[in-house]
């Protein structure tokens, strides 16, 4: 992960347009004395599209130091008026579905149309030391060296709420820096798809051809979130199998009620590795965006997402405050045991815990 | 709804075994002076299977008066040791799928095997004055007059959390009263299926034959909760259509990952009205119960459900406390507007609201 960040900063030097350079960070030094820029300097750098300032700002945002947090929040407020104009695309699929290769190929197609692309990720299980789902840079070799691309791995391990928040704020910074297409990648095995789904305009599910075994990793409910399902590895001997899977997904989608957007999720086949069917995927996404902008759903969904994150953040904080309360912690485990062993009802145990919390 | 309660109380008189009679409630009088029983008297009545005491205890439980609430909680604590031994079955389906007729026919089949059946419901939108999903007694004509059956409509309108809690507590009272089979009915159009799903052992989805239109009312995600799907109205000219729908559901279920229970959801056809295929549905439920008791999932799921309700209740109360705070209420609407109009991020607005709440 340091490797990628490093590489982004290197790229930053290439596209830099005469603004003062932040120093290159040596990833092997635990503590690096960086020049502290002011919020105004960061904002100016980001609005000029300087990838190094953007990268450092995201690092600030991910920092746990209150001073950095404060700076980051002020910076985000400054960037908000310049944000919101991108197309945000969530991409999920089980490990092995070929997400990285697909992002590389689809991303390059989008870049060739003249877009600027940011690739982010949400993976609460990732740790800086162990790499993350975007850590395997070799699978995004074309994007990784392209000056119009900003790649950023998932924020390091933490609560899903915390990780999702940082990614959502990173989207704002990227948009202010002129990235008009944002990918948010996640692995389709945990809770993180819901978080990604609630911050993107289009949710793309990558599947593999096959008759069941390959699908076991995909969590229940994810298929119903998808605005588009794309069956990868439709090449060579695998084409018939992919077409069969496509038909199965089409049949399955028929059983679901129509989405509120009015959009009928489409199922396509493609090959990320052999670059087959990629323009069709991008075309589907564009048609979805046009369609939902036309019928008003696009803006409605974005407003609803903001509303969701407001109340989700409040909830997260109320929970933290409660469960970190020392008196609650003293009796929580015992109450949980009593409930699991059916000695008291969950409601009575909850009341006792809440009384402990509020009546101090 | 008064009609059903009334009828239950009447039935109560029939099965009463010499315990002192509570007075019959006249539903046309706003205030009825009832004799107040002690917790011990209620518990004794319930444990003897007296349907009138059970019915009054549920009314206590549904009361908003703190004194009644207190009594009800003490009563539930007394009943807990005698609860938990029933099979709890959630039943959902869109209006028109034939839920009431199906419950009547399936219920009578179960009764004839010697079981005692309680039929409850969760419908947060119901109001006492407007009737509820169990209000149409004419569709459960066999069950409604049977002495081994306790029918109780959904608690009256309120938050889903509150309604679900009351139903879950009613389950405990019913079990203590000797009901060994509990149906919890809900309409497959809202959030209430998740609540029902989290309090039952088996979740049954009633569907109609057809190619799409009839399914539009079923909420996304419900199909994936089902342990069994049953296609109703498989009779006469409709049999082929029902068989086709059955095959479509079987195909669709293949695309889902296996459930954690290890159980493969089954799809059956039947006719509630003509009483065709009913024993097969009950047989499927019994096999599921045996299977999950065998592999330990049954107890695991119940413990997890209790754990879920403990934390869900806490969450609900934390939210209530926050959103009813006068200072929070003063600024909430304006903060929501700012967020929806992208003037501030959801996170900054959340922080301002939380500061208001905690720093008073």
How would you describe this structure to a colleague?
- Two copies of one chain form a homodimer.
- Chain A is α/β, with parallel strands linked by helices.
- Helix content of chain A is 51%, strand content 11%.
- Chain A is built from 14 helices and seven strands.
- A seven-stranded parallel sheet of chain A has the order 3-2-4-1-5-6-7, with helices on both faces.
- In chain A, α2 packs across α4.
- The longest helix of chain A is centred in the last third of the chain and has 27 residues, at 297-323.
- The radius of gyration of chain A is 22 Å and the shape is globular.
- At the A-B interface, α4, α7, α10, α12 and α13 of A face α4, α7, α9, α11 and α12 of B.
Topology:
The structure is a homodimer of 360-residue chains.
Chain A: H1 2-15, H2 39-47, H3 51-62, H4 66-79, E1 87-93, H5 99-112, E2 117-122, H6 141-144, E3 149-151, H7 160-176, E4 181-187, H8 192-197, E5 202-208, H9 222-225, E6 228-232, H10 239-255, E7 266-269, H11 278-294, H12 297-323, H13 326-340, H14 346-358
Parallel strand pairs in A: 1-4, 1-5, 2-3, 2-4, 5-6, 6-7
Helix pairs in contact in A: 1-3, 2-3, 2-4, 3-4, 3-7, 5-11, 13-14
Features:
homodimer, 360 residues, alpha/beta, disordered N terminus, 7 strands
Point out poorly predicted stretches of chain A. Answer: 1-21, 23-33, 127-132
> What do the pLDDT scores of chain A average to?
83
Number of strands of chain A: 7
- State the end-to-end CA separation of chain A: 45 Å
Biggest interface and which pair forms it?
A-B, 64 and 63 residues
What's the gyration radius of chain A in Å? 22 Å
Largest sheet of chain A: 7 strands, parallel
Shape of chain A: globular
